[in-house]
């Protein structure tokens, strides 16, 4: 089963409509409503809304025994001003679809159209439109939702467009494809003082100056090493923006990254111990918390086999080049619930990079992505 020319025109127009009305993580209420409305005439057998926030799951049943196969896309945009210059540019100042989640959503909607016309021969298909991928809490919220048990998948598949890779080519491999990561916020507390008498206070200045190089030094190994770890300082602030007060408060933010989930606990412990030691040296108190937690995305060999078969049958070129990636992807949590795999679909070698302000999802990827997913579903479900 393939998309008609009319399907492609309508899916492209709808993708551009989503692009004009972006909503960032955890705010995707209208985007979710758009999905529900667009899929209404495909007659899903079950439509779950509000999953893990604003998530939507559309289910197409065969009525016969068989596996449950889930395909996932993301709903959220980014807090970035768009500078693409396209006619369908964002109408929301400071927010835009600079990662292509609007295009991924259109690819899943294309599956909905096709399964609305012809159900799978056995089992069922779940189209999972997930919120809050960019902040790492979306997939975790979906699988923690009690209603997730109604759609518990045997297989879960996803894709992400990838600028820098030739258009329409795929990057895929078994094993780790995206690193685990989390944001660590270190808060240092001392005592303010008059800037003419800094000795009467307790300043975090020297502690911050030590932490800035010491945190990245916790990184270990090369990226080819399974024990690879990396720390990137992303933000620091100290005191108030005035000249008369010596500071008593500071924050240092860093992203901790590992290739394996098991390594993350060790890296967190090392970073906490480092912060505590430096704080104590400078008579400061220290506390820390974690944000935007992503587990490693690990492709199950069985799931990869199904995708690779579909790619070969559809004549889509594939390699393992450029994998794994240091970047994180919250699809990894689905791998804790099902045999899962994600592939990366080339957007063009000279295409603007993800999260760049001039990026716009290439519409011609919609039929390619949907073909790959449809072939995967038909092979698994008949």
Automatic annotation (TrEMBL):
Domain of life: Bacteria
Cofactor note text: The Mn(2+) ion enhances activity.
Protein keywords: Hydrolase, Manganese, Metal-binding
Cofactor(s) of this protein: Mn(2+)
Pfam families assigned to the protein according to its UniProt record, in alphabetical order: M20_dimer, Peptidase_M20
UniProt GO MF annotations: hydrolase activity; metal ion binding
Statement: the UniProt record of this protein carries the keyword Hydrolase: yes
SUPFAM superfamilies assigned to the protein according to its UniProt record, in alphabetical order: Bacterial exopeptidase dimerisation domain, Zn-dependent exopeptidases
Domain Peptidase M20 dimerisation: 182-281
Hydrolase keyword on record: yes
UniProt binding sites for Mn(2+): 99, 101, 134, 160, 355
NCBIfam families for the chain: amidohydrolases (TIGR01891)
Protein name: Amidohydrolase
């Amino acid at each position: 089963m393939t998309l008609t020319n009319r399907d492609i025109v309508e899916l492209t127009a709808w993708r551009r409509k989503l692009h004009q009305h972006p909503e960032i993580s955890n705010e995707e209420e209208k985007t979710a409503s758009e999905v529900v409305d667009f899929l209404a005439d495909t007659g899903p057998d079950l439509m779950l809304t509000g999953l893990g926030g604003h998530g939507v799951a559309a289910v197409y049943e065969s009525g016969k025994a068989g596996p449950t196969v889930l395909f996932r896309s993301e709903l959220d945009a980014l807090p970035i001003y768009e500078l693409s210059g396209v006619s369908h540019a964002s109408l929301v100042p400071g927010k835009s679809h600079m990662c292509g989640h609007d295009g991924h959503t259109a690819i899943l909607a294309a599956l909905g159209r096709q399964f609305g016309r012809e159900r799978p021969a056995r089992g069922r298909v779940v189209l999972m439109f997930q919120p809050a991928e960019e902040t790492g809490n979306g997939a975790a919220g979906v699988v923690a939702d009690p209603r997730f048990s109604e759609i518990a998948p045997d297989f879960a598949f996803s894709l992400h467009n990838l600028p820098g890779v030739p258009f329409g080519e795929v990057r895929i491999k078994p094993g780790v494809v995206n690193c685990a990561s989390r944001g660590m916020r270190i808060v240092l507390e001392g005592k303010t003082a008059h800037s003419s008498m800094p000795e009467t206070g307790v300043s975090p200045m020297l502690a911050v100056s030590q932490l800035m190089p010491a945190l990245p030094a916790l990184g270990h190994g090369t990226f080819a090493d399974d024990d690879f770890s990396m720390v990137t300082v992303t933000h620091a602030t100290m005191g108030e923006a005035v000249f008369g007060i010596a500071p008593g408060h500071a924050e240092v933010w860093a992203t901790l990254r590992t290739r394996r989930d098991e390594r993350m606990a060790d890296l967190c412990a090392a970073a906490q111990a480092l912060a505590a030691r430096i704080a104590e040296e400078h008579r400061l108190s220290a506390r820390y918390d974690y944000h935007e937690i992503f587990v490693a995305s690990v492709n199950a060999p069985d799931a990869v086999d199904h995708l690779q078969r579909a790619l070969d049958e559809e004549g889509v070129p594939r390699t393992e080049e450029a994998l794994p990636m240091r970047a994180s992807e919250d699809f990894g949590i689905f791998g804790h619930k099902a045999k899962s795999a994600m592939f990366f679909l080339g957007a063009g070698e000279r295409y603007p990079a993800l999260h760049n302000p001039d990026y716009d999802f290439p519409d011609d990827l919609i039929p390619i992505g949907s073909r790959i997913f449809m072939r995967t579903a038909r092979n698994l479900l008949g």
